[in-house]
Amino acid sequence: MTRPTLLDAARRIAPLAWPVFVGQVAVLAFSTVDTLMVARVGALDLAALAIGASAYISIFIGLMGVVLAVGPISGQLFGGGRFRECGETLRQAIWLALGLSVVGCALLLFPRPFLELAHAPPEVAGKVRSYLAGLAFALPPALLFTAYRGFNIALSRPRAVMVLQLGALVVKVPLTALFVFGVDLPAPLAGLAIPALGAPGCGIATAIVMALQMLAAGWMLRRDPFYAPFELGGGIGRPRRAEIGALLRLGIPMGGSILIEVTGFTFMAFFVSRIGTSAVAGHQITVNVVALIFMLPLAIANAASTLVAQRVGAGDHRDARRLAWHSLELGTLIALGVAASVFVLRDPITRLYTSDPVIVAAALPLLAWAALFHLADAAQTIAAFVLRAYRIATVPLVVYAVAIWGVGLGGGYALVFGGIAGVPAWLHGARGFWVAATAGLFIAAFGMAGYLARLLRRQRAARVEAPATAA
């Protein structure tokens, strides 16, 4: 038999990866739309958006990571032909999402810790509070849709998710414009006019869109005959301790890992906001670009995780190992090309967001580092997702804590605010945070890829089944 090549793996990954990529770009376009529209309102609203979005993402992403444990568990059950158990996993993930929503909404409605961390001035803090109040209504349907998304991707049905994400974006654009810029109506209808809300308007628009997206997902689960073998017609039933416990054992370290990774970004925004509104505006543009190009390795990571989990569930561990390593090689090669493109095109990319020369000057040097950042980010993400397919989540959590919080965030704070003698001038300001964050991600990439290589070698030598519990 001919040994599978990297090209063979790419042919298997691509049909799953491209719908995930398109869908995730649609999701990211939510924040891109917000940034582009609010940037035209003014630096004050853009700073409020940066701080508020950082707070929301810190909360949502951590909770989302817990709910996404539905993916690896469902993927292994699906690969083994255990469809009814697969459907029960989705039901319990829905209960988990509802419970986590209570915690998340409380944090969004009382954001004082985030405001103090950012040292937000009163005029910015008020806008942040209004923005997060809108997002408190968006969080529950967003987490419920996360369960739907993780379940469908695990079943190799990313297109069903993509369609709803694209539809949500179509609705999001005009709603955001409506609430950000407002609308004036003639005298007889003046009482119905919508005032220009700026950044807070983005939160209201997102809440409406998330509710509609959740309702559409529920309708598809009830109507699509594909889901019949999973026996989902009886509603969500009752919470079951064993299944929720399995989700939490895998989901808590998964959520912790994702939370650490994302707060490496969001806490940077809080600290950079202390430097000034121009600095945080440049940082926000850079974050948006990095998040956009990150969608491609994220799509590859999702596809690889799905395929590896299914092969593990089916007992084909040799194929799982090959897919695991080939996905890492493929993602890293693609990321290298993307990073080079961002570096070369950083000036025109920045000017797509703003013509303000002060903000352009703040963003350009950050985008240069963002190119290197992306290369490391792609490698560590794919390795981490493959490990989750083997239901290994604690090791990535430890690696992230040391590399991203310790080296990245801690190192950046020390460079910028630590008063260290001899720090070069070019490491002052927001650039110091990006340099440290890039170094931290390279450490995470080497640590995660090294652990994955060791796991695959051990399996190849022993020819035994991979771990079936979180490690």
From TrEMBL:
Q: What is a single molecular function from GO for this protein?
A: antiporter activity
Could you list this entry's UniProt keywords, alphabetically sorted.
Membrane, Transmembrane, Transmembrane helix, Transport
Q: Which residues cross the membrane?
A: 12-33, 53-73, 93-110, 130-148, 160-183, 189-212, 247-273, 285-308, 328-346, 358-376, 397-427, 433-453
One Gene Ontology cellular component annotation held by this UniProt entry? plasma membrane
For the keyword Flavoprotein, the answer is no
- Asked whether the UniProt record includes Transmembrane among its keywords, one would answer yes
Tell me the first and last residues of the signal peptide: none
Any idea what this protein is called? MATE family efflux transporter
